[in-house]
Amino acid sequence: MAAAQCVTKVELTVSCENLLDKDVGSKSDPLCVLLMSCTEGRWYEAGRTEQVQNCLCPKFAKKFVVDYYFEIVQKLRFGVYDIDNKTVDLSDDDFLGQLECTLGQVVSSRRLTRPLLLTSSAPAGRGTITIMAEEISDNRVAHFEVEARKLDNKDFFGKSDPYLEFYKQTDSGWQLAHRTEVVNNNLNPTWKSFRIPVQSLCGGDLEKPIKVECYDYDNDGSHDLIGSFQTTLKRFQDASRTSPAEFDCVNSKKKQKKKGYKNSGVISVKMCEVKKEYTFLDYIMGGCQLNFTVAVDFTASNGDPRSPDSLHYISPQGVNEYLTATWSVGNVIQDYDSDKMFPAFGFGAQIPPSWQVSHQFPLNFNPSNPFCPGLPGALQQSTASQYFVLLIITDGVITDMDQTRNAIVQASRLPMSIIIIGVGGADFSAMEFLDGDDGRLRSQTGESALRDIVQFVPFRDFKKAPGPALAQSVLAELPQQVASFFGLFGLKPPEEAGASSGFLHYSH
């Protein structure tokens, strides 16, 4: 992979038909996870779709964006699960089937439909999965603010629970591009601002038709269509520059039956702004660097370092889980730091001369200069400049969850990401909660994180083959987190914006 040249980025859209029904009294609540492998037997998670409730034929709105290398066989494994809990660990959920293929097969087909198989290679009932591939050649993103008024009431008790779906026109029909959140019990909803890549919405053609559908959400999956309309991204833009762009939300069946029918409500696009969105590589190649800091758990639960049972015991081969985890991640990140000086801290140890427990001490015992030269110098770190990466390696669960949640929510507004690697055999469900894959983390007071900045991985999942596979899984979300932070604040790559205007400055 080191010598490979990325040919392009590819967007993968997933849908399924006739999934197994694993729920009693309702339907399965499917989610699709994508695993990738470029090395035999070593898989890493590349992403997950949203969960679609009570649906055996889901169309997932969340896309997978992957780098395509022509000269490398990139194996893909799409796994579909019925999600029944809030944990990140999918082993607790019902398996609905999987498809293994290569990215080359998907790209060459453009639209690949295959039966879903169980782990025994038996068919997963009549279940099928369809993968659609499209090259991403447009890095513009449309930012929306949308509300509605006087929507039809589809509920007998209470009011409609509306949400919107945006569709792109393709040769094979309408393809789901985005789904908003549900606004409960409201006929005049205002949805949270959202973004849709221009490529996903109209293939880069601002005059291409877009279809918008408004639904009333029902828990049993039988969502009622309130109405729909068609337009173009250019009309969205032009109309919303001076005043909200308003569209009649029309239900064709109701229009046929009811004389004098006008609409089933009005959709008002308050803002539609198309912006260029820079990628992780744009920022890195433009001069941005990564700061890498490691924090190592020295609490008593690790055991006596002199004992072979201790997680800090250094084996005759000179390694343990802490060192392996640090090296695996740091070996990748160190290439993005110019001075190769990495601050390394420990927590939970009794420090001389007072032998009081310290929850932050430099591993080189030099508080004025906690930096270690290179990975061999500390075997615990990696990078330095404008985006910060904190690697926490720990054997235990969190005892001060409220304070931790508050700290992470506040940190989501800073240029930083947090990687947590759990070593040993502890129950890490509390750590999984901090990983925002199931929704934005909230503080004790209910404040929502601005973005997902935590990635948690248990080391035991990679014990047989650590190194590249562990690093790929741990760092899979980092490029998007870096790009999304700078994008949120409208910051351009340093070389494009000028050295002074391209950065935000934070105290360490």
From TrEMBL:
<dbReference type="InterPro" id="IPR037768">
    <property type="entry name" value="C2B_Copine"/>
</dbReference>
<keyword id="KW-0479">Metal-binding</keyword>
<keyword id="KW-0965">Cell junction</keyword>
<protein>
    <recommendedName>
        <fullName>Copine-3</fullName>
    </recommendedName>
</protein>
<comment type="similarity">
    <text>Belongs to the copine family.</text>
</comment>
<feature type="domain" description="C2">
    <location>
        <begin position="1"/>
        <end position="116"/>
    </location>
</feature>
<dbReference type="GO" id="GO:0038128">
    <property type="term" value="P:ERBB2 signaling pathway"/>
</dbReference>
<dbReference type="GO" id="GO:0005544">
    <property type="term" value="F:calcium-dependent phospholipid binding"/>
</dbReference>
<keyword id="KW-0472">Membrane</keyword>
<dbReference type="InterPro" id="IPR000008">
    <property type="entry name" value="C2_dom"/>
</dbReference>
<keyword id="KW-0677">Repeat</keyword>
<dbReference type="GO" id="GO:0005925">
    <property type="term" value="C:focal adhesion"/>
</dbReference>
<keyword id="KW-0539">Nucleus</keyword>
<keyword id="KW-0106">Calcium</keyword>
<dbReference type="GO" id="GO:0005886">
    <property type="term" value="C:plasma membrane"/>
</dbReference>
<dbReference type="GO" id="GO:0046872">
    <property type="term" value="F:metal ion binding"/>
</dbReference>
<dbReference type="InterPro" id="IPR035892">
    <property type="entry name" value="C2_domain_sf"/>
</dbReference>
<comment type="subunit">
    <text>Monomer. Interacts with ERBB2 (preferentially with the tyrosine phosphorylated form); this interaction occurs at the cell membrane and is increased in a growth factor heregulin-dependent manner. Interacts with SHC1; this interaction may mediate the binding of CPNE3 with ERBB2. Interacts with RACK1.</text>
</comment>
<dbReference type="InterPro" id="IPR036465">
    <property type="entry name" value="vWFA_dom_sf"/>
</dbReference>
<dbReference type="GO" id="GO:0071277">
    <property type="term" value="P:cellular response to calcium ion"/>
</dbReference>
<dbReference type="Pfam" id="PF07002">
    <property type="entry name" value="Copine"/>
</dbReference>
<comment type="function">
    <text>Calcium-dependent phospholipid-binding protein that plays a role in ERBB2-mediated tumor cell migration in response to growth factor heregulin stimulation.</text>
</comment>
<dbReference type="GO" id="GO:0005737">
    <property type="term" value="C:cytoplasm"/>
</dbReference>
<feature type="domain" description="C2">
    <location>
        <begin position="123"/>
        <end position="247"/>
    </location>
</feature>
<dbReference type="Pfam" id="PF00168">
    <property type="entry name" value="C2"/>
</dbReference>
<dbReference type="InterPro" id="IPR045052">
    <property type="entry name" value="Copine"/>
</dbReference>
<dbReference type="InterPro" id="IPR010734">
    <property type="entry name" value="Copine_C"/>
</dbReference>
<dbReference type="GO" id="GO:0005634">
    <property type="term" value="C:nucleus"/>
</dbReference>
<keyword id="KW-0597">Phosphoprotein</keyword>
<keyword id="KW-0963">Cytoplasm</keyword>
<keyword id="KW-1003">Cell membrane</keyword>
<dbReference type="GO" id="GO:0030971">
    <property type="term" value="F:receptor tyrosine kinase binding"/>
</dbReference>
